Amino acid sequence: MDEQMDLLRFATAGSVDDGKSTLIGRLLLDSKAIFEDQLASVEATSKSRGYDYTDLALLTDGLRSEREQGITIDVAYRYFATPRRKFIIADTPGHVQYTRNMVTGASTADLGLVLVDARQGMTEQSRRHAVLLSLLRVPHLVLAVNKMDLVDYDEEVYNQIHRDFTAFTSKLTVPDLTIIPISALQGDNVVTRSDKMPWYEGPSLLHHLEHVYVASDRDLVDTRFPVQYVVRPKSDKWHDYRGYAGRVAGGVMKKGDEVMVLPSGLTSRIAGIDLFDKEIDEAYPPMSVSVRLEDDLDVSRGDMICRPKNAPTPSQDIDAMVSWMVPEPMRVKRKLAIKHTTRTARALVKNIQYRLDINTLHRDQDTHELGLNEIGRVQLRTTQPLLCDPYATNRDTGSFILIDEATGVTVGAGMIN
Description:
This protein is α+β, with helices and mostly antiparallel strands and about 425 residues long. It contains eight helices and 25 strands.
């Protein structure tokens, strides 16, 4: 089971000067995830710019210039590993005009890391980041109070930010919040505990990232297996093989389990589960497997295998929070393609109930459209039923994307209520 759970995806969010690049650079450097030549190059560049320190932000800033020229790279993904765990960092830009990028980067994250500058404390931007991470149901939240070296490692500064942030997040859905004082530049509390803040008794940031328990965040109760591909090899050796390939989106599947296929409603039992070329005993999220059934049912891409007494309700009327991602606004009566798990249909925008102000949580009900980077509650009608769950229960079966049929561009991302 460890192989799948050893991975932590986390999204970083911070304003431009909160030290996000320096922090990621420090994590990569102190966890020995960068090569000597990369470090030498960064040291040389720092010297040539006249800095009296190694500017770790340069490790991640290669992407920055491309971003500024036209944001070709919306979300930069970085990979590193320690002996305990593998990590994928989704580094998302902090400005309000990049809300869509943050939605993209955080939608699959296990943990959201919000940076604040100890000198500035809570800002409108840090509040907005917390709201978005809560809206996207990111199960773990870390507030890193950075630049503690610039406030002389003062405990009271940290306590004030701790109080402000805790009070603010009490209004949101934040199941697990950890607040850590750090200095990314000096390395305090990033990878190792700092002796400059003896008043802080918690873990270093990396220790927390290595040990935060994410296995229980996955829905292991409601079996959901969207079929991506029907496997029918045309060889003599596998003449009668018929498997249904896909990624487990919920629950634990075992050989012998009684299952139902939606939308047909036909039932069967699991004859076996294959991972690559070997049979395995059980499958759970987020494993990609091939499932064989005892009966020869008509199953195709977009169908869902679930348990007979625990199935999603097929629905053509969808209520969702939608994050709009393109300049041309979303309006009522607009027709779009909708992609939900492995199923694609067409959708009509029936109603836009309100636009959510993500700074104040105010619901503006006088709106008739959603503009670029705006989030609102929308009612859609689809041409065929979607097999969905509320996003709060399952982030895979509770989310979808909207696509402009003429251009093929993704124009929105939705979370089903």
